[in-house]
Amino acid sequence: MIIEDVPPDAVDRSGRPVLEVDELTVTFRRRGEQPMRAVDGVSFAVAPGETVGLVGESGCGKSVTSLAVMGLLPRRGVQVGGSVRLDGRELVGAPDRALRELRGADMAMVFQDPLSSLNPTVPIGTQVTEVLLEHRDLSRKDATAQATDLLDRVGIPDPARRLKEYPHQLSGGMRQRALIAMALACRPRLLIADEPTTALDVTIQAQILELLRELVVDSGTALVMITHDLGVVAGLCDRVHVMYSGKIIESADRHELFARPRQPYTGGLLASVPRLDGVRGAPLHPIRGSARDVIPWAEGCAFAPRCDHAQDDCLTEVAGSTVPLEYDGPGRELRCRHPLEYPRSPAGATAAGAAR
Amino acid sequence: MLRFVVRRLLQLIPILLGLSVLLFAWLRALPGGPAQAALGERATPEAIARYNELFGLDQPLYVQYLRFLGRAVQLDFGNSARTGRPVTEEFLERMPGTIELTLFAMVFAIGVGIPLGYLAARRHGSWLDSASVIGSLLGVAIPVFFLAYLLRLLFAVELGWLPGSGRQEVRIDATRITNFYVLDGLLTREWDAAWDAFTHLVLPGIALGTIPLAIIVRITRASVLDVVNEDYVRTANAKGLATSTVRRRHVIRNALLPVATTIGLQTGLLLSGAVLTESVFAFGGVGSAIFDAIFARDFAVLQGFILILAVVYVLVNLLVDISYGLLDPRVRVR
Predict the structure, then answer these.
(1) Regarding beta strands A19-28 and A36-46, do their DSSP bridges make them parallel or antiparallel, or are they unpaired?
(2) Which pLDDT score is estimated for A356?
(3) Residue A118 to residue B238, Cβ atoms within 8 A
(4) Does residue B238 fall inside a structural domain?
(5) Residues B134, B57: one domain?
(6) Quick check: B234 contacting A, CB < 8 Å?
(7) Residue A351 CB contacts under 8 Å (≥ 6 apart), including other chains
(8) Which of A52, A153, A236, B144 is deepest in the core (most CB within 10 A)?
(9) Of residues B231, B240, B327, nearest to A117 (C-beta)
(10) Which sign, positive or negative, has the C-alpha torsion A266, A268, A269, A274?
(11) A28 in Cβ contact with A213 (< 8 Å)
């Protein structure tokens, strides 16, 4: 199995990626229940200015991965293994105090639901300045000035007035912008965005994504996008890791992935998106079953029960081993024994068409 | 805001009218009567008739009621049949005692209840947590008069640590200004009088504070357990804020919202008179006055006290609603 999964150009730009995740495992243990492995040996890296997407259905482990990176999982009942390095500093097992110093300053996170992610009884201003006051040596006055500036930068009009308002007085898009302002307050090296647009209107979604892209390009921040939305991936990500049942099953650059998905699951995801250029009334192709119809990876490929391409050797009983994540051409990795095949020169064949 | 307050105050009018009718009818339906109570069991029918005539009790009920209502709007509730003094005067003398007792009980309940509930939630599943859950269940379940009697027996009668009856030792000849005995002692610099009045609050205050204490522990605990799982607490942690800031600004502040409502409601309840506790401790507040008035069939005192207490209760609740808006910006009234 290939452990190192650092895209060559990521290392080239700065000499070293901002975030390196190696063989990360997260196991939930509850008394009286079987331990549940939510993240199972996930490895990836993000370089400065690069945007990496973690894609998958709900329950695939992508959010747990991001919380594990931030050190935000509860300590009780959760076991985190493997390695997470931020600018070379090991975070797994680091003391809470050290993690608090890094969070908000060097790594920050934007969450899915902007309303519930903001404290309803504290003015927006306080919620922005508290990050600055915690990590920077600033006076209250300077912090307020910086907060005004931040809100302005994320596109909130009349920022001085908004600072005094409470979350319920802002629109959904404004709230998400405010959350982004808080995350970016201390110019973090790494920003993790967990489904940042899911709770928003489509028009607002596009604005927020555009904002994130600008910020990444301007500041050289490493961005991890957690999403189930392939539209977000297409618009924003340089590199994509598709997750299924706690493991990465396919990694590729964005263009490669959309042009030639190799894992039947990735192909299925692409095919289940409605296309504007398709024939009107043409049926959609959802992936059959649900994410609950999995088998343990130890017994073969977790996706096999839902896979149209599955064969006998997708099961460990026949093949004798779990399906490994393997080199699949330059910049690509794949966990599949029977991937989708493409003709040598894909003349005119569209990705979705091929996937079907 | 002003409209909200005015509307609530106007709602008082029908409430008080209805309550006065009910009270009036109910009191007259009680067996016996003020004459019997005042003149004793062996009073002659003539004496009773004369007594009734003297106090206007021989008039038809609706005449009595209208007469009562006419004077009540001028805050005149007549004279006590027992002491002959104006009801309003008796009330003003008694209410400060009940207010002092309520304050003591609530400070005790809040001061112990919130920290205990918070700690129980922080150590969810520990022995402290289980103990506080069981303890608060007991606290709600134990009849107050029983607890009051037990406390008095143990700490006043057996151990003699604290006074077990009254509001102040009789031998202390304290100056009265406001009828708040503790406050009076402080104002007149009669420190021993203030301290003595304070010690008289301890046992009835604890007995009275037990139910609010139990409720506050339970609500604080449940509320903290809810809030620590809120997304905004995760956001606060993701910002790398110090643990103390996360707790103070993001957990406790929000967790106390439901607790504040409870505190308001409980304060209103206690203010409207703790009949049983005050009786056990012979504490001269409105509760023991009502207790005595019931036995004496003292209609004037009962009607007057209960109506005024109803107004107090509604006003306290209005205050709670207004203060809630200050705590939670989402429900701020326009």
Answers:
(1) antiparallel
(2) 40
(3) no
(4) yes
(5) no
(6) yes
(7) A258, A259, A260, A261, A270
(8) A52
(9) B231
(10) positive
(11) no
Burial bucket for residue A138 (CB in 10 Å: 0-12, 13-18, 19+): middle
In angstroms, rounded to a whole number, what is the distance separating the alpha carbons of residues B114 and A164?
A: 29
Same domain, yes or no, for B58 and B105?
A: no
Report helix, strand and coil shares of chain A as percent, to nearest 5.
Answer: 35, 20, 45
Domain assignment present for B40: yes
How much is the pLDDT for A6?
43
In degrees and rounded to multiples of 5, residue A275 shows phi and psi of -115, 135
Please indicate, yes or no, whether residues B217 and B128 belong to a single structural domain of this protein: yes
Please indicate, yes or no, whether residues B234 and B133 belong to a single structural domain of this protein.
Answer: yes
Give the phi and the psi of residue A108 in degrees, each rounded to 5: -140, 165
**Which of A67, A70, A130, A133 is the best mutation test for B, with the most CBs of B within 10 A?**
A130
Which residues on A lie below 8 Å from B235 (Cβ)?
A: 111, 117-119, 179, 182
Distance CA B239, CA B232 (A): 10
- Which of B268, B298, B314 finishes a domain? B268
A130/B249 Cβ within 8 A: yes
CATH fold for the domain made of A19-237: Rossmann fold (3.40.50)
Phi, psi of B246 (to 5 degrees): -60, -45
- Give the integer Cα–Cα distance in Å for A221 and A215: 8
Alpha helices in A105-253 (DSSP H): 124-135, 140-153, 159-163, 172-184, 202-219, 230-236
Count structural domains, chain B: 2
Per-run averaged pLDDT (10 residues), chain A, 356 residues: 43 68 92 87 92 90 93 90 93 92 93 91 93 91 92 88 92 89 91 87 83 83 90 88 92 91 89 73 75 81 87 80 84 89 58 42
The ipTM, to two decimals, is 0.84
Smallest Cα distance from A168 to chain B, Å: 7
